[in-house]
Specification:
mainly alpha
C-alpha cells in the first residue's frame, strides 16, 4: 500500500474509534436516563395513588358540606 492509502486507513480507524467511544458514552447516558425515568414514573404513580386516597378520605369525612362559595 502507498503512504497515502496508509494515512487514509489510519485516519478512518482513528475516526471509527472516536465514533465508537461516543456511541458507548451516549449509550451509558441513555441507559442511566431510562432508569431515572422508570424511577420517576413509579414515584409519580405512587403520588397519584396517595392523592386519590386523600381525596377519598376527605370526601368521606365531610359529606353534605357545601363549599364556601355556595
Amino acid at each position: 500500500m502507498t503512504s497515502d492509502t496508509d494515512a487514509r486507513l489510519e485516519k478512518l480507524e482513528t475516526d471509527l474509534a472516536h465514533a465508537q467511544l461516543a456511541i458507548d458514552e451516549l449509550n451509558d447516558v441513555v441507559t442511566r436516563q431510562a432508569g431515572q425515568i422508570d424511577l420517576l414514573t413509579r414515584k409519580l404513580a405512587a403520588l397519584e395513588d396517595h392523592m386519590d386516597e386523600l381525596e377519598d378520605a376527605s370526601a368521606r369525612n365531610a359529606p353534605g358540606v357545601k363549599p364556601p362559595h355556595y
